[in-house]
Structures are given as C-alpha cells and as structure tokens.
Amino acid sequence: MNENLIKPIKNTDQYKQVIAQIERLLDCPPGSPEADLLEVLSILADDYENKTTPILPPDPIDAIRYQADELGLSSKELAALLGGKNRLSEVLNRKRPLTLKMIKTLYRQLHIPAESLLAA
Q1: What are the 10-residue block averages of pLDDT along the chain, 120 residues in total?
Q2: N or C end of the chain: smaller count of CB under 10 Å?
Q3: Strand positions, DSSP E, 6-120
C-alpha cells in the first residue's frame, strides 16, 4: 500500500496489505511520521474489522456464569438474586427463560450488559 495515498479498506486483500504495513511500523519511534501513519492505518484496520466481523454479545447464560465467576459469587449468592436454588438451576440449565425482573436484577447487581442478557 502506498504510504502517500491512504484510502479506506474495502476488501480482504487491502486489509492484509494494511496489516503487513502495520506490522512493519510497530517498532517506529513515538512522535515520528511513521507513528502517525501507524495510528491512521490502525484506525482503518479497526474500522474494517468492525464492519466485517462484528462481535456479537455473549449468550445470556454464559454471561451470567462468567460474571458470577469474575465476582467470586457462590451458587447460593447467585440463587438469592434469581429467586432461589431451583430457579437458578432451571435458568442455568436453560429450562426457564430469564424474566424481566431477573434481567433487571442481573443488570443492576452484577453489571451484566442488558444486550447480553437479552441476546437470544
């Protein structure tokens, strides 16, 4: 890719060329013209990646398990949030859908993004 003519990335071949150029520029000195070029190319590559491979929110049950693990919550603590041990078991085993009340509680108490809890 010509450094003097920077264009949006429109296909996989152009993306690969930009990535190769980014790799060559990774060790450039901060504040140099090469560092500026690296920043611009990185923005273009990130934009292309976001357009072509969007990251979907995690499955709601996976999000609950992950966040509970991250926060070090016991099954008993998680059950208290969801309405009891049996309800927790049913939800985690996908036998009972999350209710709006559960979603609100998980969002507020565990800070799980609503888009993850509402993903189907």
Answers
A1: 75 96 93 94 94 85 96 96 96 95 96 87
A2: C
A3: none
The first and second tokens of residue 62, run together, are 């996976």
d(CA 113, CA 55): 14
Map tokens 């150029």 to a residue: 21
Tokens coding 60: 């709601």
pLDDT of residue 64: 96
Phi, psi of 94 (to 5 degrees): 60, 30
8 Å CB contact between 98 and 91: yes
Residue with tokens 């292309």: 48
| DSSP 3-state of 29 | coil
Query: Can you read off the two tokens belonging to residue 118?
Result: 């509402």
- The pLDDT of residue 56: 78
